[in-house]
Write a structure and sequence with these properties.
Elements lengths: L13 H15 L2 H11 L11 H14 L4 H9 L11 H9 L5 H9 L14 H8 L1
Helix pairs in contact: 3-4, 5-6
């Protein structure tokens, strides 16, 4: 069986859901590759800035690394902008959702609550009044 037999989720059989689970496990193995492709898509200049979003991502990760951050923080800094592709108004939350299964909870919570991209440095990526409304 290469695909499920149902058209409505509640009609799925045990075998259908076992198949979907196998496919989901296999698909998850390629998450890092998809994240790298998403980073590459950030290599276009955002109007008004002197650096591309990809350049900013590399800059953030480099600063985190130089600050002595561990792997989770560096990954969070590197990938925080991938949400800009589909969710420019809440890209930090979007990226956090993608990374949540792969980083420690404190990194997820702190890095994205107010758009923080470096440990120990609170730099909101949204206007402070908007941040207060969103996260109060």
């Amino acid at each position: 069986m290469d695909q499920v037999s149902f058209t409505q989720m509640n009609d799925g059989t045990k075998e259908d859901y076992e198949l979907l689970n196998e496919k989901a496990i296999e698909d998850a193995k390629h998450t890092a590759d998809r994240l790298v492709r998403a980073l590459a898509e950030l290599d276009n200049k955002l109007a008004g800035y002197q650096i591309t979003r990809f350049g900013h991502s590399l800059q953030s990760a480099t600063r985190a690394l130089r600050d002595g951050a561990d792997t989770d923080w560096v990954v969070a800094a590197l990938t925080h902008g991938i949400g800009n592709i589909f969710a420019p108004r809440n890209h930090d939350e979007y990226a956090a959702t993608i990374l949540r299964p792969f980083v420690r909870e404190v990194v997820d919570r702190e890095a994205y609550a107010l758009g923080v991209v470096r440990p120990g440095l609170r730099v909101p990526l949204v206007q402070p009044e908007i941040a207060k409304q969103r996260f109060a």
